[in-house]
# Entry
Amino acid sequence: MKKIINDPKNVVDEMVQGLVRSYPEYLERIPETGVVYRHDLKNIQGQVGIVSGGGSGHEPTHAGFVGDGMLSAAVCGEVFTSPTPDQIFEAIKKVDSGAGVFLVIKNYSGDVMNFEMAQDMAEMEDIKVKSIVVDDDIAVENSTYTQGRRGVAGTIFMHKVLGAAAAKGANLDELEQLAQKVLPNIKTIAVALSGATVPEVGKPGFTLGEDEIEYGVGIHGEPGYRREKLQPSKALVEELVGKLNQEFKFEKGDQVAVLVNGMGATPLMEQYIFMNDVLNKLADLGLEVKFTKVGSLMTSLEMAGISLTLFKVSDEIVENLNYATDTIAW
Amino acid sequence: MKKIINDPKNVVDEMVQGLVRSYPEYLERIPETGVVYRHDLKNIQGQVGIVSGGGSGHEPTHAGFVGDGMLSAAVCGEVFTSPTPDQIFEAIKKVDSGAGVFLVIKNYSGDVMNFEMAQDMAEMEDIKVKSIVVDDDIAVENSTYTQGRRGVAGTIFMHKVLGAAAAKGANLDELEQLAQKVLPNIKTIAVALSGATVPEVGKPGFTLGEDEIEYGVGIHGEPGYRREKLQPSKALVEELVGKLNQEFKFEKGDQVAVLVNGMGATPLMEQYIFMNDVLNKLADLGLEVKFTKVGSLMTSLEMAGISLTLFKVSDEIVENLNYATDTIAW
Amino acid sequence: MLDVENVKSWMTKFNEQIQAHHDYLSELDTPIGDGDHGNNMARGMNAVMEAIADKDFTDVPAIFKTIAMSLISKVGGASGPLYGTAFMEMAKVGDGEVSALLPAALAGIKKRGKAETGEKTMVDVWAPIAEKTDFTADDVDKAVEATKDMIATKGRASYVGERSVGHIDPGAMSSGYLLKALLEVEE
Amino acid sequence: MLDVENVKSWMTKFNEQIQAHHDYLSELDTPIGDGDHGNNMARGMNAVMEAIADKDFTDVPAIFKTIAMSLISKVGGASGPLYGTAFMEMAKVGDGEVSALLPAALAGIKKRGKAETGEKTMVDVWAPIAEKTDFTADDVDKAVEATKDMIATKGRASYVGERSVGHIDPGAMSSGYLLKALLEVEE
Ligand SMILES: Nc1ncnc2c1ncn2[C@@H]1O[C@H](COP(=O)(O)OP(=O)(O)O)[C@@H](O)[C@H]1O
Ligand SMILES: Nc1ncnc2c1ncn2[C@@H]1O[C@H](COP(=O)(O)OP(=O)(O)O)[C@@H](O)[C@H]1O
Ligand SMILES: [Mg+2]
Ligand SMILES: [Mg+2]
Ligand SMILES: [Mg+2]
Ligand SMILES: [Mg+2]
# Structure
């Protein structure tokens, strides 16, 4: 394991320290916790607070999206491990200014359970809390009998859309309706070129051969649905857009937002090349691209690879995506 | 070589296409060139244009810094290869609105020669051009008889400071004075955990053992000054801040801006941990940190590692660093 | 009937197993999960041992509550709320009657995880054991082993679907350690 | 005295060498540079060959100018301006007199690169050859080889300082190909 760290046990604490000290104009930390919140909370008195979080190792998610027009607070768990209810509860208390708090949760049993417990705690103290569980990763089979799909990079679109709505003054019920409306329209799929190593584990979650890739991996080293030889970018795009289209069943003229997300070690050069191929393919399908974003935003430590999120949007949603935002990472 | 690309010969062209198509609200491209310029050039009529550029493979540099408050245009050369004079000249013509054009050049013989030739071409067409050659990498011995030091991540501070000054209305001479004033105050040093592979070359510029690091590498696979076993972040900070301090000979109370820059494959988690250790060390030295920035901004393809830039600043310079900016990557 | 000292030694023995099998639990969690179950449990049990060491508890529910809070606030992931809830529900039983504790813990886990038996989770170890009036180490081992052939439909292992077959569930394994540690205390 | 056809066949032979030694030139550029000299020259010479193929040039300066422009606008890096300037200066000579062409090229390179002999660059091949009234392939090889023992003080190789010793300079090698290709045309 080759990482710029000190004690593997302390990576999250030291990371949060470094983050908050680097960006005091954006973030403050609740002492002794992994909770970071907007430095200027007083400016959003009366608005619904938006809290997200999850395991660490996905930086800049979630803390990088705390700020004007997006999240009010983020809860940083251990690496790839859901944060605990007490910390989520601290975040909820911090950002509630009477209008209630909306939680954005990625669909992992751990995250769902810990956020649920925090929600119970908050409700016992009469804080109104609602939530959405994002499950955008289509690599996983869906079924009501199973855990369902994972929450991955599409969660960032959820943060953006809800953050804009909250900033415009939406109340808790309106945020819930909006979240539920957009949820089925956000879908993601990934391809990995290498695995990632959790510092405390010391070896990669999976390894790939010199010329091997894996389709459908998650953001915590979860294996995907198929391994094959390395393909040109255009071929990757065929596979990933193909899978997404099977789900969306797009029609000519449908409007989409596109997020090409680097998984950590993949340079922007490759991400832009990939995006270029994606845009060509979406044009072939007759889709209208209304919004685009490229960058390593929902990472998986130093995993190499890319995920592609498509988000079927209305003009109203595009407005939220373009709404003024001031965060470290958006 | 495991990369998400198509033909290695076309990486730069496809990248620039992907970039411009992803961010039409920021960038336009001069057709058939690697030149991208501000979409809203008309808004800066009468201001000095600022042009930078160099080999590609350092994304988001330079194109990611084109926008309000920073660069007017960027010229993307082949991977790790200076752009040609004709393209630089096109960029100069595009952004000149009578007040002249200022060039920010990184100190490589190729870059210096190509930009110089472009400057000659521009002057033949009566465009006023001035320039600065950034040479912030202290890993290289300095001497008036040699090529001198390389331009690396500190160049971004130069972009920011000059961009702010130009936006505030500084003329060409004032920009030149400012550039020369800040130049000796910007110094950088890097450490690599792995090498990078130029797509057309197909193998890494250097390779390091499983537990080896190299101090003082450049951003094009140039070797550094020492190899040793992997060290904890704190020890890396000792070495790098130590070297910088030897150059600066800091005194208690000196004010600095800090840039922790990921070289490509190094995740933000490690960058924040490293920054945390840097800030501790700078506090020990009695320095006053006035500005901090963390991110993979001046990369070297998929190289793993980090560079540390310290910039000795006055309050006036801090103001420029904090000046409102709207670009893809700042 | 467990008393406070019994519970302390139960936790001591459980902690020994967790620390000894730290890497093994993470390894089980690698092919079908995210490789952190050993870390999660080791971190949690360190916190538990710290919280109960040199501390006097008035009764069994009090120590169960402390254990629950330590697990809930230190483990995170899926196993934190599940084990935390298990001990919280055991605290609600009011005394140390094992035949009541285990069904209470099981009910808590099932409710928290929305899981049934046969889904390849820790429920598949707790359920057969909690239903027995008496159980042996062998019963526990068999229940743990039985998760190997199951297809996961809850937790992270569900993402790999049929490819989860052939791997023991890590939460089942750690639950097995817990239940066997209890046996040793009861003996 | 070179005529337009001579120059075309000079470029054809030079291009053959560049394409054949594409990888080798990049390899030379790896330990002491950035590994792209082969790519840069191959890209440039492809452009040169395209620009001069099937085209009629009125005189030698005209074809030199076209070659210069192709190199300047296609190579980039350090070698683009250097080779471009060399051909531009040769165009200014006005005819194909080799004894005048090479010194003109040398002067252009030195001025553009602000380099002197002994700095481990292509100047160390151009200088000894341009100074001779007659030169042989052996002279060229020796000059190229001599860069091996030099310490680089210009170009990227200067960053590795003393560690540049033991490596032939890539630009010296490509310049060697160019000068030996000229010999073949003159014969
Ligand atoms: N919904 C659930 N119901 C019951 N047990 C579950 C559920 N989800 C996960 N588990 C248990 O939790 C274990 C994983 O714990 P752990 O690895 O610590 O958390 P995470 O999955 O968040 O990384 C699984 O092996 C399984 O036994
Ligand atoms: N200042 C200079 N003067 C003369 N020749 C130089 C100078 N800088 C570099 N060179 C030559 O250019 C060669 C490198 O060319 P190339 O690799 O194509 O460009 P770059 O160094 O920009 O990657 C060197 O081997 C050397 O011969
Ligand atoms: Mg986990
Ligand atoms: Mg180069
Ligand atoms: Mg796990
Ligand atoms: Mg080179």
